[in-house]
Amino acid sequence: MIYSSTIRRIATVIVLACIAGSIVVGLLHEPRTPLLAWTSLTVGAISLVVVLATKRKPKRDTVLFIISGMSGGMFIGAAKVDFPGTLPVWLWTIGAICIGTAALIVDAESAQSKSVNRL
Mean pLDDT of residues grouped by 10 in the chain (119 residues)? Predict the structure, then answer.
């Protein structure tokens, strides 16, 4: 997979759509959704908005995608939502971590392909 700006933008928008689905699920389960779940959802969304708003940097993007994926895991753990409702959260978590891993691999490959001038 080529980690281009277009692919990064499309993947980030898809994950943000999953976060929007998680917001809907959280609002449907409002009495049972604690503050920690909303905080983790906010952190995940903000990290992806930063990715969309800035230039492509695979190392930074990796960290932000991993943070967003872990936020999804925290949302799953904190929100008391049953299985059909957790599908967008699972897609959010898996998608964000996969994109972060792809960014890390692309960064590692580009670092290996650069020539080093050793004197």
Answer: 68 85 79 81 89 82 87 82 77 84 77 65
Q: How far apart (Å, rounded) are the C-alpha atoms in residues 74 and 33? A: 12
**Residue bearing tokens 């996969």:** 98
The rounded distance, in Å, linking the Cα atoms of 21 and 86 is 9
Distance CA 75, CA 36 (A): 7
Q: How far is CA 116 from the centre of its chain?
A: 33
Angle between helices 35-53 and 83-113 (to 10 degrees): 40
Residue for token digits 């992806």? 48
| pTM for this prediction | 0.76
What's the sign of the alpha-carbon dihedral 33, 75, 22, 20? positive
> Cα(40)–Cα(21) distance, rounded to whole angstroms?
15
Q: Which residues contact 76 (CB under 8 A, 6 or more apart)?
A: 86, 89, 90, 93
- Which tokens hold the place of 104? 């890390």
